[in-house]
Amino acid sequence: MPILIRPSVASDVPRLTAIYAHHVEHGSGSFELVAPDEPEMARRRMGVLDNGLPYWVAEVDGTVMGYAYANLFRPRPAYRFLVENSVYIDHRAPRSGLGRALMAEIIQRCEAKGARQMIAVIGDSANQGSIRLHQSLGFEQVGLIRSSGWKHDRWLDTVMMQRALGSGDLTTPTPKAL
Q: Which CATH number describes the domain made up of 3-164?
């Protein structure tokens, strides 16, 4: 199964929407309760790209089977070296290596842009697949917000994980901001 990791394009939006909708409707990794439609997913994608940040897809046999991106964590200027990642894989392709390949690309792209820290905000402390994926890429758990979301008739925790990018906080960043 050859995997093609490439930048997303506008024509990917229907697949991005379908992949995410399944996670919203059936999973606990996203705290959204209603899946966004294609115009909203297109708007979100453009927001990431307008910030000059990466939004990549994993394609298998010509079909987009996953995506990942990084965006600004918060809009305040002091956060300009901190990005937050997201990664979603088609529910039919768990543990396929797609998430790892996508995240490795996103990490590399963010380092090249001058980001110094990446944070993952993971829905549901039982989401061991996402937690293990991030751990395997050097993320450490830095926080747990208990019972922070109510979805599927139960309370869900939020797991906060963090990874240094480049020289992290060991050196002063260049004036260039993301």
A: 3.40.630.30
